[in-house]
């Protein structure tokens, strides 16, 4: 997503409803996911297209793994499970990793023990009871966008910001042991 730092992937373990899987994939595509994946049994891609009107699996890399042990995530990806379990970090208190793969469990069960063991972090959405899988995925992706996106600060009063976010600019390089000779010569020439 433009202006957002890092990258992320979205995955499903043991999801049975094609509509849910399709809605998650479509939402991930809209939020700028880098890749999609499924683990274990999952609906066929043709079936997910009833809800995935963006046809995301034709636009993003898609991986299918038989089990949590078979997963081969990209280097530096931190696996984040989203589940209502004891000890899970409440989503509003979670700092999303720059490189992450989020995995959501089946509609009427939980992430497998093997998957939870693979997770670097497990987060939960602080609701009174479980919510729809596609809604949960959208909330997590939106929260990630708030953390890693570049938006103007919210005002104290109701309403929107007074102007656009300041554009990030890089300053001059800082060197720990003096300016290298190559750069020192170019600075002298421009003076």
From TrEMBL:
Which Gene Ontology CC terms are recorded? cytosol
Disordered, as annotated region: 157-191
| GO biological process terms, semicolon-separated | tRNA nucleoside ribose methylation
Q: Which UniProt keywords apply?
A: Methyltransferase, S-adenosyl-L-methionine, Transferase
Please name one Pfam family that this protein belongs to: SpoU_methylase
The superkingdom listed in its UniProt entry is Bacteria
Q: Which GO terms describe its molecular function?
A: RNA binding; RNA methyltransferase activity
tRNA/rRNA methyltransferase SpoU type domain location: 10-142
* Protein name from the UniProt record: RNA methyltransferase
Organism, per UniProt?
A: Elioraea tepida
């Amino acid at each position: 997503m433009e202006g957002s730092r890092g990258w992320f992937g979205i995955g499903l373990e043991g999801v049975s409803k094609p509509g849910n899987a399709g809605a998650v994939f479509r939402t991930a595509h809209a939020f700028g996911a880098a890749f999609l994946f499924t683990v274990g049994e999952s609906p066929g891609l043709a079936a997910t297209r009833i809800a995935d009107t963006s046809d995301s699996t034709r636009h993003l890399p898609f991986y299918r793994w038989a089990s949590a042990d078979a997963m081969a995530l990209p280097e530096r990806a931190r696996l984040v499970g989203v589940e209502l379990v004891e000890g899970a970090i409440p989503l509003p208190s979670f700092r999303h990793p720059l490189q992450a793969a989020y995995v959501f469990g089946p509609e009427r069960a939980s992430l497998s023990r093997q998957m939870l063991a693979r997770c670097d972090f497990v987060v939960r959405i602080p609701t009174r009871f479980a919510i729809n899988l596609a809604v949960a995925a959208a909330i997590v992706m939106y929260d990630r966008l708030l953390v890693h996106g570049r938006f103007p600060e919210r005002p104290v009063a109701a309403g929107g910001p007074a102007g656009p976010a300041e554009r990030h600019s890089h300053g001059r390089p800082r060197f720990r042991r003096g300016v290298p000779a190559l750069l020192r010569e170019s600075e002298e020439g421009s003076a």
